[in-house]
Every structure is written in structure tokens, then in C-alpha cells.
């Protein structure tokens, strides 16, 4: 089997892996200014997508330019999320070099889409492919690829621990080669129940003191997780931004969430903000919790809520995800100020961070790989892939961290 790495090596973003020069696994983008895309142009016979995050699907519609119509295989939520993200990219960057596709190519996705559930093998570009639940976000999959000689397991993003929205991965299919993510190879997460307890206590304290809490959250996965937390602890909350649409969409696919009834209850527990008639202004004038995009304060209704609550130290901003360097969220955590809508604003409200990660940490990655001590492990999707691979080699595992553009024969 020949494996070519077109992106996502030594970095988190633009994941793209070409197998046997015919089967493409993921085709993402690296957000930033400017965004970056996988290297080389590709003309695959088929495409398999692991899950609906921008760094795995962001450039997928561009594969349908000209006469190219490769089938795209994914789970139903992954297809829906890809469309949502692509529409957002068109809205933000359409017609510029920062958007690698047009409305026309996005519309073609319907013609080539092939949906699959977990553990239902299918054929793609002459390979047998099977999805397994990866426990990262709804619809996320480990991808097993068998070319008749070699079995490749592409873990993509995964979590070994349970979240309220999705249960952790349990599948460990046999494989000769494993391409393993390493986003949090250097991190030990606190136990999820402990993180949740701290979050709930902090939010309840602020409400009791008469303050408002703005909870910036990624639209996909994180928003729903926090709505589930609020419902479970009976914390009244509003939800705003792209997370509203994603929440409604996920309700349509109960097979891909851990507890569909809990998601239904959380959805009716939360109040969906329409934003009409100055509603956002009224919300922050009362004692309230608002779960809203964007998770890193780079856009979305958070741009209205943060300026409205920032001046009062009774209020609180609770970051719930990793803050990439250079984002307003990161700046706020480090300096107590943030550039919101082009204006630098000092923030007197309390700012806190909670680790609601959807990725395995160091121990999670190592426990997953315990099932693959005889396999070749190729480490990608992390800031220090080489360091993690070195640690594996020290323990006798055949491991390497491929470089951008590298082709390996396995
Ligand atoms: Zn992901």
C-alpha cells in the first residue's frame, strides 16, 4: 500500500491522505490568515471523509470542479456538517482565494454523496472500507481501509472518554498500519465529571450573584455538549449562533448521538435566540447564561454579547475549548483584553477556561495504541507528531511522523 500525506503532518489542519494514488481520506483546510489547503492537486477515484470538522472537510467541494465527480463516502451527520461549513466558508470568503470552491461545486455534492453507518463495509476505489464510531463528534469515524494486502486504520480525531453527546471509542479493528492523531499528545485532561462540576458551580455562583454568563462554544459538538450539561443541572440557558442549526440537524440522526432523549430534553430546555427586536440586548440585561458561537470569539453573536457584559466584574465569560494562538479568545485569556469587531476592549468581567475536549489525551492515545503494538504507527494531526512518535519507538513500537508531501510504502 502506498500512502501520501498531503496535509495534517506536524500540524492541526488541512488533513488529507491519498491511498494507492486513488482513494482520498479527508480534504480539509487550515484556518488562519490566509487559510491553507492540502499540497498538490489530486484527482481521486473516490473520497472518504472521517468527520464534519473544517480541518477534515473544508476543501471537499473543490474536488468536484471541472468534470471530476468522485463519489464521496461519509456518515449522514458528516455530510450535513460539511454542507453547513461549506456554506459558511462561501459566505465569509466566497469569490476570493480563501475559498477553494464555488456554489456550483457545493451543489454537486448531492450527486456524488454516498452515506454509510458504522460497521457497514463498502467499496471505494477498489478498497473495502468500514467506519467505526470514533467518539469525537456525532458521525465521526475511524476509517478502516483494506486493499486486499494491507489493512490501514486511519483513526482521524477520536476520544476514548465518554462525553454527554457521544460515547468514547471502543472499536479496535485489526490493522497492519495505523495513522493516529496526536492533538493532545502532551496533555492530561482532568476527569470530565470534575470539569463539569467546576463549570456548573462557577455558572451557578454568577447567576446567584445576579451576573450573566457568556459561554463561547464551537457550533459542532461543543454547543450541544454544553446544552446537555445545562439541562442535566437544570441551569436555564439560551443558545445562539450556528450551534442552533447544528443542534436541530443532529436531532434528525438519533443513531449518531449517545442519548437521543437527553438531547431532545436539552433542546427543549434551552431557549433558542432569534435575535429579533433587540432580543440579545434584553437577554444580557437579565441574569442569564448564553451558549454562543464563535468558540474563539472570532465572530458570531458572541460579538454582541461580550461587549454588552464586559464592563461588570459580576459577569463571567467561560471559554470551553482550545484557543488557537492569534484568536481574540486566546488574547482575552492571556491579557484580559480582546479585539472584538476591530476594537480593542478591556474586559472587567471574570474570564475562565474549561477543558471540555473531544480528543483523547496522552493516556487516551497510548491506551488506544495498546491494541496495535505489532502495527506500524504513523503519527499525524498534532503540533509535536515527531515527539509522540519518538515516545512510541522508545517503547518498542514501529512508529514514525511523516512529513508534508511524503509518500510511504507500507
Ligand atoms: Zn475534529
TrEMBL record:
Any one GO MF annotation of this record: RNA endonuclease activity
Keyword Hydrolase in record: yes
Highest classification ranks of the organism: Archaea, Methanobacteriati, Methanobacteriota, Stenosarchaea group, Halobacteria
InterPro entries found in the cross-reference section: Beta_Casp, MBL, Metallo-B-lactamas, RibonucZ/Hydroxyglut_hydro, RMMBL
Entry keywords, A to Z: Hydrolase
PANTHER family according to UniProt: CLEAVAGE AND POLYADENYLATION SPECIFICITY FACTOR FAMILY MEMBER (PTHR11203), MRNA 3-END PROCESSING FACTOR (PTHR11203:SF52)
Name of the protein described by the UniProt record: MBL fold metallo-hydrolase
Metallo-beta-lactamase domain segment(s): 13-218
The Beta-Casp domain, residue ranges: 223-332
Amino acid at each position: 500500500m502506498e500512502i501520501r500525506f498531503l496535509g495534517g503532518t506536524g500540524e492541526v489542519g488541512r488533513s488529507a491522505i491519498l491511498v494507492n494514488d486513488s482513494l482520498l481520506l479527508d480534504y480539509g483546510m487550515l484556518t488562519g490568515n490566509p487559510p491553507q489547503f492540502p499540497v498538490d492537486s489530486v484527482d481521486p477515484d473516490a473520497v472518504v471523509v472521517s468527520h464534519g470538522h473544517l480541518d477534515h472537510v473544508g476543501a471537499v467541494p473543490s474536488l468536484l470542479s471541472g468534470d471530476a465527480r468522485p463519489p464521496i463516502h461519509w456518515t449522514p451527520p458528516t455530510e450535513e456538517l460539511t454542507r453547513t461549513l461549506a456554506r459558511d466558508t462561501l459566505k465569509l470568503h466566497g469569490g476570493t482565494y480563501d475559498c477553494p470552491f464555488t456554489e456550483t461545486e457545493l451543489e454537486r455534492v448531492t450527486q456524488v454523496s454516498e452515506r454509510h453507518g458504522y460497521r457497514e463495509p463498502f467499496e471505494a476505489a477498489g478498497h473495502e472500507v468500514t467506519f467505526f464510531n470514533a467518539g469525537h463528534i456525532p458521525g465521526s469515524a475511524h476509517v478502516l481501509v483494506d486493499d486486499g494486502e494491507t489493512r490501514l486504520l486511519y483513526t482521524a480525531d477520536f476520544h476514548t472518554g465518554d462525553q454527554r453527546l457521544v460515547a468514547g471509542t471502543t472499536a479496535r479493528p485489526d490493522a497492519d498500519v495505523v495513522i493516529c492523531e496526536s492533538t493532545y499528545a502532551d496533555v492530561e485532561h482532568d476527569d470530565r465529571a470534575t470539569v463539569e462540576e467546576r463549570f456548573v458551580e462557577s455558572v451557578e455562583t454568577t447567576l446567584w450573584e445576579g451576573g450573566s454568563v457568556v459561554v463561547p462554544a464551537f457550533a459542532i459538538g461543543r454547543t450541544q455538549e454544553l446544552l446537555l450539561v445545562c439541562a442535566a443541572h437544570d441551569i436555564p440557558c439560551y443558545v445562539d449562533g450556528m450551534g442552533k442549526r447544528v443542534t436541530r440537524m443532529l436531532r434528525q440522526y438519533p443513531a449518531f448521538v449517545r442519548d437521543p432523549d437527553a438531547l431532545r430534553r436539552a433542546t427543549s430546555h434551552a431557549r433558542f435566540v432569534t435575535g429579533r427586536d433587540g432580543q440579545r440586548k434584553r437577554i444580557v440585561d437579565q441574569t442569564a447564561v448564553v451558549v454562543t458561537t464563535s468558540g474563539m470569539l472570532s465572530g458570531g453573536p458572541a460579538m454582541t454579547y461580550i461587549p454588552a457584559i464586559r464592563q461588570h466584574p459580576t459577569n463571567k465569560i467561560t471559554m470551553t475549548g482550545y484557543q488557537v494562538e492569534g484568536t481574540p479568545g486566546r488574547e482575552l485569556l492571556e491579557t484580559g483584553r480582546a479585539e472584538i469587531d476591530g476594537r480593542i476592549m478591556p474586559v472587567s468581567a471574570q474570564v475562565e477556561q474549561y477543558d471540555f475536549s473531544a480528543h483523547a489525551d496522552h493516556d487516551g492515545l497510548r491506551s488506544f495504541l495498546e491494541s496495535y503494538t505489532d502495527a506500524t504507527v504513523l503519527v499525524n494531526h498534532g503540533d509535536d507528531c515527531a515527539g509522540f512518535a519518538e515516545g512510541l519507538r522508545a517503547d518498542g513500537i514501529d512508529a514514525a511522523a511523516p512529513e508534508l508531501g511524503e509518500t510511504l510504502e507500507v
